[in-house]
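quick one, 171 residues, struct below
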Amino acid sequence: MKPRTGLSVLLGIVTCAVLDFIILLTAGYSDIILISPFLGGLVAGSFFIEPMKDGGKVGAITAVVDTLMVRPPIQTVLIQMGLLIIPPEISEIESLGLPMLLLLSIISFLVQLGIGFGGGFVGSYIKSRITPPQQPLPLNVCPYCKAKIPPGAIYCPYCGANLKEFKPPRF
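---
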């Protein structure tokens, strides 16, 4: 894993952890908790510009780590401290049986994975729109007539070509 990837995932996970704690403490068990993997993915994805799929990938990784390793301990601590109460609806889900419980867990996991991917992709997309494009280095030779030109010239003093419109070939 590249250092930039690790840092982005770490910042995304920290974002998720803070949001999980605040949401569980204030709203309890509610659908609003799904904002946590999205915003964590958004933070993680904002570190990547090209290609944007990497932003989605780090957003998904952030959501997986949040769902499996960050949120459960936060829930456990808050329940043990008496600050979070398990609603009766969640207790009734256990009566559905293991196969249905497993299916619901997989669906919930996949939804959060998709939300994290979307957050990472959006973060990467926004970053690519905000970051100004890099300016090409000043040319010392006119690409059209091959004459020496002063750095920063807009037009060639010899052939009159517009140097700003010249696009160097991609390799």
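Residues 154 and 164 are 6 Å apart (CA to CA).
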